[in-house]
Amino acid sequence: MAFTFKKRSNLPGFGLALGFTVLYLSLIVLIPLAATFLKASSLSWGQFWHIAASPRAVASYRLTFGASLIGAVVNLVFGILVAWVLVRYTFPGKRIFDSLVDLPFALPTAVAGIALTTIYAPNGWLGRPLAAVGIKSAYTPLGVCIALTFIGLPFVVRSVQPVLEDMDKELEEAAASLGANRWQTFSRVVLPTIFPAALAGFAMAFARAIGEYGSVVFIAGNMPMKTEITPLLIITKLDQYDYAGATAIAVVMLVFSLVLLLPINLLQKWSSSREEKTTELIPDVIET
Amino acid sequence: MQRQVLVAAGLLLAGLLLLFSIQGRAQGGQVSLLNVSYDPTRELYQDFNQAFAKYWKAKTGQTVTVEQSHGGSSKQARAVIDGLQADVVTLALAYDIDAISQNAGLLPADWQKRLPQNSTPYTSTIVFLVRKGNPRHIKDWDDLVKPGISVITPNPKTSGGARWNYLAAWAYAIKQPGGNDQKAQDFVKRLYKNVPVLDSGARGATTTFVQREIGDVLLAWENEAFLSIRELGPDKVEIVVPSQSILAEPPVSIVDKVVDKKGTRAVAQAYLEYLYSPEGQEIAARNYYRPRLESVTKKYAATFPQIKLVTVDEVFGGWQNAQKTHFADGGVFDQIYQPNQ
Predict the structure, then answer these.
(1) Is B193 at the interface with chain A, CB within 8 A?
(2) Which residues of B touch A225 (CB under 8 A)?
(3) Is A217 in the B-facing interface, judged by CB distances under 8 Å?
(4) In what helix (H) or strand (E) does residue A204 lie, and over which residues does it extend?
(5) Mean pLDDT of all residues in chain A?
């Protein structure tokens, strides 16, 4: 096995680089995760199940994963749009808009949470008009979705942007000249190209939202069964010195996240390999 | 190349010098303490630390600097359990210091017997903060469970202050004529049905009530309520004192394992004892904590209205019991939020 590895790789330093990668991933990711599982394994199956499947925990999974999914989907649609605008058009203040996109990365999440709550609270700038038409935003699941959309914004934009920049404008022009209407150009030419990148951004936004705590607790209202997110439930358990219970719920989250992220990654692989095949075809067509 | 070596050597030397000078100061009459406390004591200990530093300097010639750390009470306890080198802990409730004793063995189980009055140099209680003019006519606990009244209180599972709120409500219900556990449980259940937002800490709840203008009444530490009025001005909110409340005893203790390791036992002990001195009691009273000392209590009688106060020991049989029955997983508080009840 090692032999084939060596034979296939022409790049130097493979052994060293792989060794470092394994060590790095172990220290940063695997060992802390293993500790989580170990701590949770101090519970019997019955206890574990009792904690992990309690109605309150289940309600929190539903909210966390549901709101994260909604946030990620919103970001998928609007992230592509924002990336499109930032790449394809020039307009005054473009640079500022471009750097605004990164703001949710840079801002401490607690600050974001407080800011969002101030704005969406019933006496806030946006909360007041929303409340006037009967929409409660802060302290409802909607508020959770808003916060998770906010923190996930940069992911799709930043992963789609470079792909769009690399994509030749001529491709779209060619499509148009061959009689494709605008929607066809977008759906048959542009979308397949950016889809893998957009999906990667979607997966990152989704994963980030699942683990988000700081910004959500301020706007959620934290009512058990209604607006209590899973990370808060974990903190609640820790505050009662219930380390095992906290890790039990953490394990459920980890497993859920893996189960959800794996298909997304596979889909992304699949679509990018399909994409490669189609782009390979294009030079042939031109040559003949 | 040579220059780089020279610079490196110079930096190393400078670093070593700095290290020695710090150590030298630590031995030469300078000592530092870390006081790990909960949220609303920030202002109290800022004042107290200055006074204590002066007192200690006069008494021993030693300069003492006290560093403070504030946060949610149980989060702070957990930090100490996980290794934060606190010389003294001054937390919101005895249960959190018990947890340090039980989970990390940093102090003996009978820590609360070591200082007078349950190791609680100052007390507080739970009062109501309402909007100016008290538009909803909230006078006592009974008014909180009326339909349509919106009550702000944090989650007792994450906030020490909120546990006092909860227990005060329970104690009120059970002390009513014909009161029993069932009726008290009903009462708190109805109360929490009126709570639209459960913040995770006392300061968060104050923000929700004051800044977001949510709710008709905030259940608050008496000292927090006074601070809110001082910050907002008396034209925004006012305090309503209920007929009965709970004697909130935020206890203090030295952390034995830490002070023995750092060699700070004497000064840490003196720090806590000074809280009981007339000057310490004055500072507590000025920061709206109820003093223990009779002379200071009399002086501040106008600030702190007389309320019938019950203790956790008397109604709930101590914090360990209260915690187990009410706040543990599956306890009475959790049952309030069970879906099919």
Answers:
(1) no
(2) 337, 339
(3) yes
(4) helix A191-211
(5) 86
The H or E element spanning position B32 is strand B30-37
ipTM score: 0.70
Q: Which of helix, strand or coil describes residue A288?
A: coil
Collapsing DSSP to helix, strand or coil, A127 comes out as: helix
Confidence at B204, pLDDT banded by 50, 70, 90:
confident
List chain B residues with CB under 8 Å of A236: 155, 157-158, 200
Q: What percent of chain B has pLDDT over 70?
A: 91
Regions of chain A short of the pLDDT cut 50: 1-3, 284-288
Contact criterion met (CB < 8 Å) for A242 and B200: no
> Helix B202-210 vs helix B160-174: angle between axes, to the nearest 10 degrees?
80
**CB-based contact, A32 to chain B, within 8 Å:** no
Q: Which residues of chain A lie closer than 8 angstroms to B200, CB-CB?
A: 217, 222, 232, 235-236
Q: Is the Cβ–Cβ distance between B274 and B55 less than 8 Å?
A: yes
Is the CB of B337 less than 8 angstroms away from the CB of A242? no
| B309, β-bridge pairs | B245
Contact assessment for residue A201 and residue A209, using Cβ atoms and an 8 Å cutoff: no
- Judging by DSSP bridges, how do beta strands B244-248 and B308-310 pair with one another? parallel
* Residue B302 predicted with pLDDT over 80: yes
- Model pLDDT for residues A201-253, shown as the tens digit of each residue: 999 999 999 989 989 988 888 888 889 999 999 988 888 888 888 999 999 99
Q: Which residue has the tokens 């989060």?
A: B75
Collapse the DSSP code of B78 into the 3-class scheme (helix H, G, I; strand E, B; otherwise coil) and give the result: helix
- Check B196 against A217: CB less than 8 A apart: no
What's the rounded Cα separation, in Å, for the pair A115 and A204? 23
Per DSSP, what are the bridge partners of residue B68? Answer: B35
Touching A: B residues 103-162, CB under 8 Å: 103, 155, 157-158
Q: What is the DSSP string of A68-111?
A: HHHHHHHHHHHHHHHHHHHHH---TTHHHHHHHTTHHHHS-HHH
Of A121, A217, A223, the CB nearest to B212: A121
> What tens digit of pLDDT does each residue of B31-80 get?
999 999 998 898 999 999 999 999 999 999 999 999 999 988 888 999 99
**CB A225 to CB B337 under 8 A?**
yes
Which helix (DSSP H) or strand (DSSP E) does residue A238 occupy? helix A230-239
Q: Using the beta-carbon criterion (under 8 Å), do B200 and A217 form an inter-chain contact?
A: yes
Report the C-alpha gap between A102 and B277 in whole angstroms. Answer: 54
Please tell me if residue A44 touches chain B, with a CB cutoff of 8 Å: no
Instruction: Decide if A178 touches B, using CB distance below 8 A.
Output: no
